[in-house]
Specification:
Layout lengths: L3 E10 L6 E11 L4 E5 L6 H8 L7 E6 L2 E2 L5 H8 L2 E4 L11 H11 L7 H11 L15 H14 L4 E5 L7 H16 L3 E5 L3 H6 L2 E6 L2 E7 L3 H4 L2
Parallel strand pairs: 3-8, 3-9, 6-7, 7-8
Antiparallel strand pairs: 1-2, 1-4, 4-5, 9-10
Helix pairs in contact: 3-4, 3-5, 4-5
The structure holds adenosine-5'-diphosphate and magnesium ion (MG).
């Protein structure tokens, strides 16, 4: 159960003439069980926002609350522990190149402190959910972009996160596989998982409970689509 609140969050990169306000005084609030789509042009701040919520980066200004915890105020050690409970799906997958799909997930389970006896079942279950179990022993360079993306999604789901952060999770998938992933996300949200995904995918928008429209580091508006998941087939 994760409630997210951003209060006047600003993130500035660089300095002087080259300074970029990747996030410029962003405030937003999302309840647990939401499927939030961050939409907006390239460079509008979507990835920066995911990095902030996931405690991978700190704001220059403002507060980020996850449930009651102020993640900006945590020490590096506290943030590392906090991140163990979050599922991350990175835009470039961030798979370990020398490890198989199976071993990549194993590694994530170890980091997340999931007890070893359940690893095998978890790994096979999530690889099967993503229809990639037949490639369990392939390394990333033996997989297509879409296959790598599905392994990255399986890895994030295997730790049973209460908060899932996904950067363009369907970008490399065909329409049918993308829809399968979005349906899975919808089901997770119904069981209380909070998901924030950045996306350019118009299909993804239809599955979201909230569409957060971003432009130039700001949230233009948030469309609430409360019945979205219920109306999806
Ligand atoms: N580490 C960084 N160093 C410098 N500029 C950055 C960095 N990360 C992001 N930016 C800049 O911040 C802005 C927002 O980037 P980003 O959050 O990646 O946007 P999006 O994910 O919507 O494409 C862009 O102008 C980008 O160039
Ligand atoms: Mg991005």
């Amino acid at each position: 159960m994760t409630k997210i609140a951003l209060q006047h969050v600003t993130r500035v990169f660089g300095s002087g003439d080259t300074q970029v306000r990747a996030l410029n005084d962003v405030s937003a609030e999302f309840q647990h069980g939401s499927l939030i789509a961050l939409m907006g042009p390239s460079g509008s701040g979507k990835t920066t926002m995911l990095n902030m919520i996931g405690a991978l980066d700190r704001p220059n200004d403002g507060t980020i609350l996850l449930n009651a915890a102020d993640i900006g105020a945590m020490s590096d050690g506290e943030r590392a522990i906090f991140r163990r409970g979050i599922g991350f799906i990175f835009q470039r997958f961030a798979l370990i190149p020398t490890a198989s799909a199976y071993e990549n997930i194993e590694f994530a389970l170890r980091i997340a402190d999931v007890p070893r006896p359940v690893w095998q079942e978890r790994i096979i279950h999530t690889l099967t959910q993503l229809d990639i179990a037949d490639h369990a022993h392939h390394r990333p360079n033996e997989l297509s972009g879409g296959q790598q993306q599905r392994v990255a999604i399986a890895r994030a789901l295997a730790i049973h996160p209460q908060l899932l952060l996904a950067d363009e999770p369907t970008a490399n998938l065909d329409a049918q596989r993308g829809a399968a992933v979005l349906t899975l996300f919808t089901e997770l949200c119904q069981s209380g998982v909070t998901i924030v995904m950045s996306t350019h995918d118009p299909a993804a928008e239809r599955y979201a409970s909230h569409v957060c429209r971003m432009r130039s580091g700001q949230v233009e508006r948030i469309d609430v689509r409360a019945t979205a998941s219920a109306t999806q087939k």
